[in-house]
Amino acid sequence: MTKEELIEKFQNIKVHKSKGKISVHKPLLILLALKAFKEGQKSMPYEEIAPTLNRLIKEIGNAPSPRANYPFVRLVHDKIWSLNKQQLVDDFHGEDPTGKFLVENKVSGGFTADIQNNLTKNPENIEILNGVVTTVFFEKELHKKLETLL
To answer: Residues 104-137: pLDDT tens digits?
Structure first.
């Protein structure tokens, strides 16, 4: 995968839009995952990431009742994220699993193998993707705030 293909995948993630505003749930998860990957953590248990992701969704996304489980399982559809127990998640009553279910079943998530390989071989792409995601999905006024919160 070339750097351009990698960037394109991240620029084109599907985000929910309402009243002209985009939902930043998935981009926040990506930024957290990039930071974790840079620190050597390739897979993140939902139980560990949910509190931070919920806080960020509330602070940055202005969501009164954040639900980290949504981006955690839905990012898989963008083909940049994978779950250690995907079949278990897929079998969850035809809808998104609850946070409780993800915790009880010790579900972890991380970038797909091809993306992990790319980031391992080209660690400079972590910062490039961080910049791309920040620029594409967040208003300029939030960029500094994101730096301090992440």
So the answer is: 999 999 999 999 999 999 999 999 999 999 999 9
For residues 24 and 57, is the Cβ–Cβ distance under 8 A? yes
Contact present, 49 and 63 (Cβ < 8 Å): no
State how far Cα 37 lies from the chain centre: 12
Containing structural domain, residue 88: 3-149
Q: Cα separation of 95 and 149, whole Å?
A: 31
The domain total for the chain is: 1
Nearest to 37 by CA among 66, 11, 10: 10
Q: pLDDT of 18-33, one tens digit each?
A: 777 888 999 999 999 9
**5: phi > 0 → left, psi -120 to 50 → alpha, else beta; which?**
alpha
Radius of gyration of the chain (CA): 15
**Distances, alpha carbon 10 to alpha carbons 39, 51, 78, 105, in Å:** 20, 24, 9, 28
